[in-house]
Amino acid sequence: MAAKRFNASVFIFVFLFGTQAAILEALKLFDAPLAPVFIFGDSTFDVGTNNFLLVRQDIKANFPYYGIDYPYADPTGRFSNGYNTADQIVRLLGYRRSPPAFFSLVNHTSSFKKKILQGVNFASGGSGILDNTGSEFNNTMSLGNQIKLFETVHSNIAELRGPEETATMLSKSLFLISVGSNDIFDYLRYNIGSTSWPEFLTAMQSTYSNHLKSLYDLGARKFGIIGVPPIGCCPLQRTANATGGCFEVANEFARSFYIATEALLKQMSLELPGMIYSLGNLYEMTMIVIEEQYAFGIKNIEKPCCGDALVQCNQNASLCPNRDEYLFWDWVHPTQLASKLAALSLYGGSTRFVTPMNFSRLAEV
Ligand SMILES: *[C@@H]1O[C@H](CO)[C@@H](O)[C@H](O)[C@H]1NC(C)=O
Ligand SMILES: *[C@@H]1O[C@H](CO)[C@@H](O)[C@H](O)[C@H]1NC(C)=O
Ligand SMILES: *[C@@H]1O[C@H](CO)[C@@H](O)[C@H](O)[C@H]1NC(C)=O
Ligand SMILES: *[C@@H]1O[C@H](CO)[C@@H](O)[C@H](O)[C@H]1NC(C)=O
Ligand SMILES: *[C@@H]1O[C@H](CO)[C@@H](O)[C@H](O)[C@H]1NC(C)=O
After folding, report:
1. For this UniProt entry, which residues form the secretion signal (predicted)?
2. Disulfide-capable partner of 39 in 121, 252, 253, 278 (CB 3.0 to 4.6 Å)?
3. Which positions are annotated as active-site residues?
4. Domain 35-232+248-281 adopts which CATH fold?
């Protein structure tokens, strides 16, 4: 009798709790919260960081016609007519919203800790890998300083969730980084006479390596990294070419930056256990759009839609009626459409565009 009752209660125990565990598992599958995404870099990814900094006006984008195709035509600080590349990538990955700028969260102490669990964007227009890149703009947030801000976010998460859960969560998080163009622009402006390019590139790569290592030490494992686009083809740089063609010197630097970054990431992933990455070849993707513009419905690949090659977009500047027919939104930045094309290649592209795996694979593994 006693034995029977024992068996029955074991049965009931297993039935109840076994089922409950299974239901919990099933719920997790259907409503698994995606791990937070952390975003670093320059104006290609900035979603409003520079609005909070005392930087020069021409590396801000919180005034019309910026954002004209964003919901409510809101000039959020994105260097685009609408969504930028960071927004487009996270949307393709299934996130409901793009992580907000760190500074837009930091003063809301009550919601800060909850919101950082949904990801944070630290990217700052005009910044670079090297600390003094963009210093002519006064006070942009360099990649190094962005990582210092991430350190504070990291300790906040650790306070909230404990060190172990934090480590697990961050190991699943994507760390998206798009940086390097401004270092090359500054090299062309200030250092080209005094430092050789190989020497400068080596300095850039060793600093980049230190920054990535800092993120790894804080728990980052999955890196989604984007190379430098053909910056010599942006309207501003084309003015350095008398024929109006792309400024080849800048493009050559962009290509060698990609090659060096690929070697660096390969090496680091061999040395650092658990580190995986995707490296997007934004140079190649953009060149294809330039060479095959009509296949993408793009009528103008040389001139910006808003402003011109030497005038930043603002509400007194000229504005093209159909933004989707332009590659460039302003003197240096792509249109929302061009960002979308890049994000699609990063998300689902083959190794020609993103190596050794695409971003959707990186998010899954
Ligand atoms: C946050 O609040 C402090 C104190 O009120 C203020 O000085 C600072 O400018 C604010 N920072 C941002 C980014 O809004
Ligand atoms: C440069 O930044 C400092 C603070 O870091 C600020 O006091 C100054 O007004 C800024 N200058 C310009 C021209 O924006
Ligand atoms: C200018 O553009 C042309 C192509 O249109 C190219 O052949 C030439 O090398 C470029 N010159 C410079 C200085 O970049
Ligand atoms: C646009 O033009 C008006 C009138 O000339 C001027 O008051 C205003 O400051 C200009 N705005 C910008 C952003 O240049
Ligand atoms: C991403 O890469 C994988 C293989 O690496 C491939 O099977 C897949 O089709 C690519 N695109 C997407 C959206 O997953």
Report:
1. 1-21
2. 121
3. 43, 330, 333
4. Rossmann fold (3.40.50)
